[in-house]
Amino acid sequence: MKISEQELRTILKKYNLKITPQRLIILNYLISHKTHPTAEMIHSDLKTISLATIYNTLEKLVETGLVVVIDINDDKHHFDYYGNPHYHIINKTTNEIIDADNFNVQPLLDAASKASGLKISGYHIEVYGNKS
Ligand SMILES: [Zn+2]
User: Fold this and answer.
1) How many A from CA of 11 to the centre of ligand 1?
2) By the number of CB atoms within 10 A of the CB, which of 28, 33, 41, 59 ranks highest?
């Protein structure tokens, strides 16, 4: 997905994030790479930004819910743009992370709200599977 700088700025503003060049670059990277990269993978493509800055920027983006962390068996954090909520199917055999949005989460959110009395503000669902 290609996105303009103006759209990137609008997204950061919507999540109450101050606009910095690093945030624009890293957000753009995550939106255009649906590979669920680690910080190291991002750094190897964006060498002009230090790994420490990438970590700090990701931390800030994760705090707001704009980016989510997915942990799989490889002991690394994988990052994903979450402006369009979806769920993840993780193949435990290969560690592949598959994006999916083919089910209606509303009944689940309604049930969660009913069980907790909370107004549901978001979700992050991971489904695991093995090759049998
Ligand atoms: Zn994803």
Assistant:
1) 17
2) 28
